[in-house]
Amino acid sequence: MQDFIEKNHRSNFGDVIIATTFSQRAITVCSVIIFICIILFMSFAEYTQKRNVNGIVYPDKGIISIKSKQSGTLSALYIKSGDFINSGEKLLAIDASSSTHYFKNNEESYREMFSKLRSISSRETQDNITDLEAKKKLTEEQVIQTKNSIAIMERQIRLLNAAIHSQQISFSKIQDAYKKRYVSDVEKNNAEMQLIDKKMQLQSLNNEISSKEGQIISLKKELEDTIDRIKNIQNENEKESIDSLIKMYGVASDSESILRAPSAGKIAEIVEKTGSFVNAGDTILRVIPQGSVNQIVAFISPEFIGEIKKGTRVALKYDSYPYQRFGFEHGIIIDISRVPLQPEDIYTNFGLKFESACYRVVIKITEKKKRINIIPGMSLKIDIPTRKTSIIKWIFPFFRDKDIDA
After folding, report:
1. Contact at 8 Å (CB) between 276 and 73?
2. Is residue 106 part of a domain?
3. Which of 70, 168, 245, 355 has the smallest C-beta neighbourhood within 10 Å, fewest atoms?
4. pTM tops 0.70
């Protein structure tokens, strides 16, 4: 037989007795405690909202695309994917049967033409350089002369300071003698005028030194400008020679065009195969510059870019390495582009397709896993935390909107 707990409740109609069991009361108390715990958990427990975006592994120095300069057949590849190459190393050959045969494409022909072009310099250019060299020499002499003048004036200042010091002592003695009526007004005034004259000479020398120092600054600036103009003329002359060489090669190229490596690096990808036909401007292979470090490039829609901050720690989940098995790496956002990139620019530079403009976000990999070997061009998903708040604010919009308004 169950125990009964009786509670007496009085009313206008008399005594009313409500009987409740102990188990019912215990259930009620436990329910209240659980409800309070849930409310406290929802109030203090925090939830971090994350944005999942697409990204790509990309070298920090970029990827160099080697493109064909003319249409023809890819007759030879001197390298293979993964090879390390040096600057100037032969990469491939393109056979263009429609080209002229007036020019023999070899190192000897290049050296001969370049030597001739370097030896041909316009008289006007040489005259300009000669005039500027003369001006440079004259300016250097003026700087030396001005420095010598300053040195002479500084010696004069030292002598004047000594004379002023001596004359100041003499004038003090004359003043004492004047007070005792040992000297006349004329003698006192003469001594005072001599002292004032020395001080004025000193001030004049100091002003002249300041003026000379200003002249030296102007002369040095003029000298730097002259040197820069000489270098610019020489560089321009060099550029014109190289441009002429390039034009000559374009007009009279050999049936076989050799493409060389523009810089040292590693062959990342060979797009075309030997024997295939390529058009001018087609990408044949891609090179990763030497010393490049892999980083992550992601693209964020403008509507979410305000939630992304530099220094944010993100999770990197590579498509080729499922994170459920291999785990994921971490990185830090180090750069966010100031303006969004257009879809065509993103596709041209990174090979990713987007329907609208996106901001570029660069991520530095900070925590790497030995089991994950990343290579440029590898795609991945990136979890970017945006903001953190209590769970109750996410469940009830009233609290969330109140925080936003604040």
Report:
1. yes
2. no
3. 355
4. no
